[in-house]
């Protein structure tokens, strides 16, 4: 009886973990949509899509900030650079929002990357 209870309990736990993982995978498009909305809300494209004229391109920013925590800190206290004409204003977002923005930008960068010519 104890063995059967242990087996049933194990199966229930495995099922719960599996369901949680599948929910995470399904949540990614929603996170991407939220990330896109946040990027639009903070008007990031106005400067970062300028091919490096006004601000570093997204690909350059993303090469430095792949972790949501570091990205959030960067947004809150942007690095000042003499290379670009203006200074980025601070952007205050939660860690979850920073993760959503980062996920969207990384996915968008992958989609826009052109395949290498053979």
Layout of secondary structure:
Blueprint: H1 2-41, H2 45-48, H3 58-64, H4 68-76, H5 95-112
Brief summary of the model shown:
This protein has helices at 2-41, 45-48, 58-64, 68-76, 95-112.
Note the main attributes of this structure:
single chain; 118 residues; mainly alpha; Cytochrome Bc1 Complex, Chain D, domain 2; 5 helices; globular; disordered N terminus
Structural notes for this entry:
By secondary structure, the chain is mainly alpha-helical. It has a domain at 31-111: Cytochrome Bc1 Complex, Chain D, domain 2 (Orthogonal Bundle). 66% of the residues lie in helices and 0% in strands. Helix 1 crosses helix 5 and helix 4 crosses helix 5. The radius of gyration is 20 Å and the shape is globular. The model is unreliable at 2-27 (pLDDT under 50).
